TrEMBL record:
Pfam families from the UniProt entry: Aldolase_II
Keywords: Amino-acid biosynthesis, Lyase, Metal-binding, Methionine biosynthesis, Zinc
NCBIfam families on file: PRK09220.1, salvage_mtnB
Pathway participation: Amino-acid biosynthesis; L-methionine biosynthesis via salvage pathway; L-methionine from S-methyl-5-thio-alpha-D-ribose 1-phosphate: step 2/6
Catalytic activity from the UniProt record: 5-(methylsulfanyl)-D-ribulose 1-phosphate = 5-methylsulfanyl-2,3-dioxopentyl phosphate + H2O
Binding site for Zn(2+): H112, H114
Membership in a protein family: Belongs to the aldolase class II family. MtnB subfamily.
Signal peptide: none
Gene Ontology biological process: L-methionine salvage from methylthioadenosine; pentose catabolic process
Protein name: Methylthioribulose-1-phosphate dehydratase
């Protein structure tokens, strides 16, 4: 991936807090490039965030292509999703990131992508979850030590009322091992740091792509 240069404005500085911010921004930019390369953030879709040690969140600004992020495309919000600088506009979906951070205090990064596999599979089934079983790659998820398991990935109806959607998700968060999917929309995956979150996203997307291929071969869906 290309190196990331932080512009000389309020997103950069020389103190310890500024260094932490700069690193968070660089991680988000690199992750956006990676997700774009894999086709998981088409057009202006998707959003990415990192939690700093002081509790601030670095999150992608509303709109903009995630494969071509600049430091100005990342803004500061608090854990309730409120922008910390006048004029900044976070995505409405920032509330879903904040919900996840509040639920898991040790969390460091949240990723939201819109892949073909997650979008299509979530619209083909009437079940409340997709079930992934017998794949070696399942071991990328926390607590999974064998392929011989069955891992549910919850599905939720898409809703432009993000606060209402968050209320639907909340009761299920504690049991999610591999993130969740919004039907016809995309996935949410998280981890203690950006590298882990990216690995889990890549693992989930690989498994969803496998499931989509199996569905094509069977000629139908559940």
């Amino acid at each position: 991936m290309a190196s990331v240069a932080i512009a000389a404005d309020r997103t950069a500085g020389t103190g310890p807090q500024d260094a932490a911010w700069n690193e968070a921004v660089a991680q988000i930019i690199r992750a956006g490039q990676r997700m774009d390369q894999r086709g998981w953030v088409p057009a202006t879709a998707g959003n990415l965030s990192v939690r700093l040690a002081d509790g601030r969140l670095a999150v992608t600004r509303s709109g903009g292509h995630k494969g071509f992020l600049t430091p100005q495309g990342v803004i500061e919000v608090d854990v309730e999703g409120r922008a910390l600088h006048e004029g900044d506009r976070p995505s409405a979906e920032t509330l879903l990131h904040c919900q996840i951070y509040r639920r898991f205090p040790g969390l460091g990064a949240v990723l939201h992508g819109h892949s073909v596999a997650s979008t299509v599979l979530s619209m083909l089934t009437r079940e409340s979850s997709l079930h992934l079983a017998d794949y070696e790659v399942l071991k990328v998820f926390e607590g999974q030590t064998t392929h011989d398991t069955r891992l549910p990935v919850p599905l939720f109806a898409n809703d432009q009322d993000i606060a209402r959607l968050a209320r639907e998700v909340e009761p299920h968060l504690a049991d999610m091992k591999a993130g969740y999917i919004i039907r016809g929309h995309g996935v949410y995956v998280w981890g203690p740091d950006m590298d882990t979150a990216l690995a889990r996203l890549e693992g989930l997307e690989f498994l969803l792509a496998c499931e989509l291929e199996r569905c094509k071969l069977k000629g139908g869906a559940s």
